[in-house]
Amino acid sequence: MAALAIDVNQLKVAAVVAFYMCSALIMVFVNKAVLNNSPDLPLLFLLFQLLIAVILLHVSAAFSSKIEIPKFDKAVAKKLIPVVTVNIVGLVFNTLCLRDVEASFFQIARGLVLPLTIVVSSAHTRTTPGKKVVFAAAVVTVGFMIGVAPSKDLPKSSIPSTLSLFYGVLSSLFIAFHAVLIKSSLPHCNNSTIQLAWWTNVGSAVMLFPFVWIHGEPWKVLDLYFLENWDWRVFAWGTLVTGVFGFLLCVAGLLSIKVTSPITHMFSSAARSVLQTLIGVWAFKDILNVNRGLSILIILVGTMYYTWLKSQPASPPSNRRENDPEAAIPLTSGSEDQEKEKV
């Protein structure tokens, strides 16, 4: 009987990890395929994904009493403006970065999430991280530098532009801000991640909407459809699939951390990152040279080392510093592809 219980538990963990990895991979590659094969409509693409996530939250709430959709409260909305603003800005830069770089290079372009999160968290709490944490951040930073260093064995088409790297760094920076703000925002949502997800998606959609019009993307759609006989089905199906998997990715990430340990979640993230690189090489004919391969390896090693540090038993309360900045840092990989951003 005990053996059966162990087998069932192991099966549940394996199923959740597989669900998480599949959702993350599909999310990235469908996003990339749509951005590659559709007109330049990144903000409209992102807006539809946010709206689909909100709709799916309401549908889920209709079928499950455990999912509670919050009532609109103006006071709560004002308190959540910082986290929503940081979320949508990070999402925009994330989308622009993915649009402009190869799928296999995306992890490198956003490789500074962990170091920047440690810096932002330390500044927020006005404390200094431990030497081992600084070492982990340094390792990841070295990996990023190796990945973005000029390489003669890459064709010009595979070399990312300075602007795309800038998008990646800004995306990493705003993810770092978001990670810190989540902790202070949860109390305004009754400490419910589902309620915070609803507020974040609704607020992000509202903030993004005027910029979609300012950027003129609705008029681009009309011109393409009526004047150029645009086949909109790739864009529509891609938006629907990524919206659904963005929602599923949130659920998968939460389940992964719930039924496994943080370090197991990190290793599944690392395995997914390797698969993402290999699939990018196969599906999009991305070029993986020695520099990029070494960069990805170093970033993964540094991030996993940090996660191992965080998984160690905590020191007694008397020996711990107050407002430890490391406590605010998420235990997920810096290369997570919007699981904390989309939903």
UniProtKB/TrEMBL annotation:
Disordered: annotated segments: 313-343
Residue ranges of the TM segments: 12-31, 43-63, 75-93, 105-121, 133-151, 163-182, 194-214, 234-255, 290-309
Alphabetical keyword list: Membrane, Transmembrane, Transmembrane helix
GO CC list: membrane
Membrane topology: Multi-pass membrane protein
Highest taxon in the source lineage: Eukaryota
Annotated Sugar phosphate transporter domain residues: 13-306
Compartments in which it is found: Membrane
UniProt keyword Transmembrane helix, yes or no: yes
Protein name: Sugar phosphate transporter domain-containing protein
Originating organism: Coprinopsis cinerea (strain Okayama-7 / 130 / ATCC MYA-4618 / FGSC 9003)
